[in-house]
Amino acid sequence: MKEKIKSLIFSNVETTKGLEKKIELIQSITSRIIKSLREGGKILICGNGGSASQAEHFSAELIGRFKKERTPLSALALTTNTAVITALGNDFGFEHIFSKQVLALGNRKDTVIFLSTSGNSLNLIKAAEVSEELGIYTIGILGKGGGKLKEKVKLSLVVDSQEVPRIQEIHSLIIHIICELVEEEFFK
Length: 188
What we know:
By secondary structure, the chain is of the alpha/beta class. The chain is built from seven helices and five strands, in the order ααβαβααβαββα.
């Protein structure tokens, strides 16, 4: 068991080291979030499964606090309203649970962030297409090569891994880096 634990730690460390090549992308994502918030927009975040939880975590860090006591920043995880999600899924199909919310809540000042380990979830792809139609800036924080979503968003950061656990671990790190940088920018 010790060797397995060492192996998993080493795998995480190696995947994390790969982020060094993505510093400019993290900076670009952060700058875009800051731009939306400065212009009175909000950050809409979505994902499925573990990525849904990460979307909620990301939103909570922006609204509540990351490290500083401060004024809330405008963010919304599109994964949290079970009545909306189940109604949309039942009435229109699961592939529309995020796109309908973007239609209802999004505007040109906003940024929509898609968290996905595969980049191939139809509900995220449809939401990216609707965002594009509305002129809303889109960002993908992805894994496994980025999938189809990589081509649908304006800016994408793809974690260099095929392993879902490693991708999600690095997504959490990216989210924390972004939240710290955004918080420092607004609350120096």
